[in-house]
Specification:
Shape: globular
Order of helices and strands: HHEHEHEEHEHEHH
Number of helices: 8
Oligomer: single chain
Structural class: alpha/beta
Low-confidence stretches: 163-182, 197-203
Number of strands: 6
Largest sheet: 6 strands, parallel
Strand order of the largest sheet: 3-2-1-4-5-6
Helix content: 40-55%
Distance between the termini: 28 Å
Mean pLDDT: 81
Radius of gyration: 17 Å
Strand content: 5-15%
Length: about 200
């Protein structure tokens, strides 16, 4: 099997980061989505006194929650499914419904034309939309009129960014301490367990 489904794979030595003692291997797997969210928070700029919302309750959206909390932001989150709402609440986010022009910063963790249009609709005039989700088909329709009329700033966050940004994202994730990393990964691991249990019950 290729890629992440393989039992083993060959990687460059400089891409390997030692896992601190005390982190459960299952929780450690969440370093990857955390490393997507942390650079996005940094690229968003100052979030002091800003009202922010995460659009999308998947793994990337949920991992944005502790990354935003680490910089002091209370987090609203819009999710489609009950198990995502439960996980968001466990992380301390506030599940909310979409509303036009309500937030200063919208983090789009979905990555579709529909989510981009929704994000532009939800952000206040002059606000910021941070694109965290990936447009895998290579193209996306721009909500041009609303985007221009509201003078929205679009900020692209490319996964982990370049190697220099990856180093910074690690610092953001752990906030300088191994204990914080353990707590953060454990919290997300527990939240993901809620998703797994809820999906199993729903079947």
């Amino acid at each position: 099997l290729d890629g992440g489904m393989a039992d083993t794979c060959l990687v460059a030595a400089e891409t390997i980061v030692p896992l601190p003692t005390g982190i459960d291997p299952g929780d450690a797997s969440l370093v990857e989505p955390l490393a997507v969210g942390a650079p996005a928070v940094r690229l968003a700029g100052s979030l002091a006194d800003a009202a922010g919302v995460v659009l999308g309750g998947g793994s990337i959206g949920l991992c944005l929650v502790p990354a935003l909390q680490a910089v002091g932001m209370g987090v609203d989150l819009i999710a489609r499914h009950p198990h995502q709402v439960a996980a968001a609440e466990r992380l301390g986010a506030r599940p909310v419904a979409a509303a036009p022009g309500r937030w200063d910063v919208v983090f789009d963790a979905v990555g579709t034309a529909e989510s981009l249009a929704q994000a532009v609709d939800m952000v206040r005039s002059g606000g910021r939309v941070v694109i965290v989700g990936m447009y895998w088909d290579g193209t996306v329709a721009m909500p041009g009129m609303a985007f221009c009329m509201k003078e929205v700033r679009l900020i692209a966050a490319m996964m982990y960014g370049c190697a220099r940004m990856c180093n910074r994202s690690q610092t953001t994730i752990v906030t300088g301490t191994t204990s914080m990393m353990i707590v953060t990964l454990s919290r997300i691991g527990e939240a993901m367990a809620v998703i797994s249990i809820s999906m199993t019950i729903s079947r």
